[in-house]
Amino acid sequence: MDFSVTFWGVRGSIACPSPNHVIYGGNTSCLEVVAGGRHIILDAGTGIRGLGHKVMEQGIQASTLLLTHTHWDHINGFPFFAPVFQKHRSLDIYAGHLHDAGGIQSVLASSMSNPVFPVPLEALQAELTFHDFKAGETLLLGDDVTVRTAALNHPNGSTGYRIEYDGKAMCYVTDTEHRPGEPDRNVLELIRGADLVIYDSTYTDDEYPRHVGWGHSTWQEGVRLCRAAEVKRMAIFHHDPDHDDTFMTKVEAEAAESWPGAFVAREGMTVDIGALSSA
Ligand SMILES: [Zn+2]
Ligand SMILES: [Zn+2]
Predict the structure, then answer these.
(1) How far is the CA of 247 from the centre of ligand 1 (A)?
(2) In angstroms, what is the span from residue 13 Cα to ligand 1's centroid?
């Protein structure tokens, strides 16, 4: 049974293509999850543009887009996702932080309105269906994929996802800020026993004190949470654009030394979730 995740964008904040961001990649948050016959996209940062070409080439007709939240780095690739301009394709769009704040359709529409973008949401040809839920609810995608959700600690809100398929589980936990010394119970509960956790590792523990209240966490906190929750593997994710290849290579070595289950997500990387074993 196929259950895999591919990283199309691994950055936070803003895309940062440059000769110093070649190894890990410069596109913002976008992941592709294949769970059996189901095609799931996590976030629509600039990485979704490349994924759009793959969807067209492979003739994938229906996808589900799960948004953590609607900060720019998680949605601004959306109007460049080519399949939304095609009539015979469908996209179900979910968000868990706007239930009482206008809903996802109106937020996407305003992000694509004059004079900041020339093509309005209504002009898209694909069949779009919008779903607002409250973070904490469980979503069922067909009868074989269960998606558990949890509210994260982030300005304007964010939603963490746990996708379960064929007895395995992968979690996507970004953007979220921890409180030092107080493991986030929502996160611990969501990730417990998961095969893979993709975690907001924008900062290092050394950098964090200068960014309190900015809504992000550290790879060291991710390792603490994953060890406590008996997770098999953790992907360091949502890299700060100021962290170039040299910096991230150092993080990769330090993280692996601290816990062999940790690795740094790179654009283009595919992880077979069914094949993961404990580190
Ligand atoms: Zn972000
Ligand atoms: Zn954010």
Answers:
(1) 19
(2) 5
Residues with a beta carbon under 5 angstroms from ion ligand 2: 71, 175
**DSSP assignment string, the chain:** --EEEEEEE-BSSS---STTSSSS---BSEEEEEETTEEEEE--STTHHHHHHHHHHHT--EEEEEES--SHHHHTTGGG-GGGG-TT-EEEEEESS-TTTT-HHHHHHHHT-TTT-SS-GGG--SEEEEEE--BTBEEEETTTEEEEEEE---TT--EEEEEEETTEEEEEE-S---BTTB--HHHHHHHTT-SEEEEE--B-TTTGGGGTTSS--BHHHHHHHHHHTT-SEEEEESB-TT--HHHHHHHHHHHHHH-TTEEE--TT-EEEGGG----
71 Cα: distance to centroid of ligand 2 (angstroms):
5
Is-above-0.85 flag for pTM?
yes
Over residues 144-181, the pLDDT tens digits come to 999 999 999 999 999 999 999 999 999 999 999 999 99
240 CA distance to ligand 1 middle (Å): 9
Q: How far is the CA of 13 from the centre of ligand 2 (A)?
A: 7
Whole-number Å distance, alpha carbon 265 to ligand 1 midpoint, is: 15
